[in-house]
Specification:
The chain has about 375 residues and is mainly β. The protein contains one helix and 30 strands. Strands 8, 9, 10, 11 and 12 form a five-stranded antiparallel β-sheet that branches. Strands 17, 18, 19, 20 and 21 form a five-stranded antiparallel β-sheet that branches. The chain has a four-stranded antiparallel β-sheet with strand order 3-2-1-30, with no helix packed on it.
Length: about 375
């Protein structure tokens, strides 16, 4: 099928122009290439705020671009309660933003000092809250209602829906879902052969789909129960194991990948002694967790055999509820979103021993911010 034919099948693509920058805190005095991106998730109009990273790791605002859609809020919370709602593809310089309030995906291109909105596509379901990229495949997690995942192909820098790719998760949620039960993240396995979804406390499971020819998924997932731990977010280890942040027990749990979508626990989950461990990011063999209800970050290490060790129950404080995380590709700086201060990004230096040193913050980014990515 030709590219034109695929676009006709999708029938959901809209092209739009660049938006004007707004004057928000942290504005730089000279234009520099954006390297950190924050999603406002504003229900009145979603935006991406682009920042340049200065030599000392602090952020300065360069541009604000409309996503052409609406942000959304999980029931009972003022954020999406998910990881990966803003995802960057460094190879193609494409940024994928989710508009949970209008059930769409925005594709933005990043070129030198400019961020441009190129496409807005239907997400294939209700309340999209997480998106993953692997090679020329993109899959979005729709958290509302029964929940679903829907696929897209990337042709160059053009994104097209994969016809007939949507798979139901068979959940029993409202739209928007409650923040406890809405699925938390979608990721690809390290080799790209499987697609994983965390269901949090909806079914307390990790669903694994097999990926076949042209990126189509198996009809149904392999469901891997995770007790009553509320699997929320994922990372992977250099050895190809799965790291899971479990919100109900505020613990890190590791798994190995097995045949046909099965996952095997590698060690007992290790709690951090904090409240509501939700988000996780891997940085140079260490794992930093955002504990939403205790307003702090914890730090773990994972051995080659998958055994986790708690390095620091409180590696850093964020003053207010902490959530989504990103890090600079060189592993020198970590950035954490928090809901206080009108929406704040806290900036940390990652020291040689893995400890975190605060270097500043950027407040006033919007009370609903969620979604952060780095180049």
């Amino acid at each position: 099928m030709s590219l034109i034919g695929l676009a006709a099948v999708g029938g959901l693509v809209a092209f739009v122009g660049p938006a004007q920058a707004a004057d928000l805190p942290g504005t730089a005095s000279a234009v520099q290439p954006p390297t950190v991106f924050v999603q406002t998730d504003n229900p009145a109009g979603n935006q991406v705020i682009a920042f340049a990273r200065q030599p000392d790791g602090q952020l300065s605002q360069e541009e604000v671009v409309s996503t052409g859609g609406l942000g959304g809020m999980a029931a009972g919370l003022n954020t999406l309660a998910s990881q990966g709602s803003l995802t960057y593809d460094p190879g193609r310089h494409l940024l994928f933003a989710l508009n949970a309030g209008s059930d769409t995906i925005s594709v933005l291109s990043v070129e030198e000092s400019n961020v441009r909105l190129d496409q807005v596509l239907g997400s294939g379901g209700e309340f999209p809250d997480s998106i993953a990229v692997h090679g020329n495949l993109v899959y979005v997690l729709n958290a509302g209602g029964a929940g679903s995942v829907s696929g897209f192909w990337i042709f160059g820098r053009f994104v097209v829906p994969i016809p007939g790719s949507t798979r139901s998760l068979g959940l029993d949620n409202a739209n928007p879902p409650n923040f406890h039960t809405g699925p938390g993240q979608v990721i690809f396995s390290p080799d790209g052969s499987e697609l994983l979804v965390s269901t949090k406390e909806s079914t307390n499971a990790i669903d694994v789909f097999q990926i076949g020819p042209l990126g189509y998924l198996s009809t149904a997932p392999t469901v891997n129960p995770d007790d009553s731990s509320g699997p929320f977010a994922f990372a992977t280890t250099p050895s190809g194991q799965l790291v899971v942040a479990e919100v109900a027990t505020s613990a890190l749990h590791t798994f190995s990948f097995g045949p046909d979508g099965t996952l095997t626990s590698l060690a007992a989950p290790v709690p951090d002694g904090q409240l509501a461990q939700c988000w996780v990011i891997a940085v140079d063999g260490l794992y930093y967790m955002a504990n939403a209800a205790s307003a702090d970050l914890s730090e773990y290490a994972v051995a080659a055999d998958g055994t986790p060790t708690l390095v620091a129950p409180v590696a850093a404080k964020t003053a207010t509820s902490s959530f989504d995380l990103t890090a600079s590709p060189d592993g020198k700086y970590l950035y954490a979103e928090a809901d206080g201060g009108g929406g704040t990004v806290f900036e940390f230096q990652i020291n040689s021993d893995g400890s975190l040193g605060p270097i500043g913050s950027v407040p006033g980014l919007g009370a609903d911010i969620e979604g952060i990515a780095a180049d």
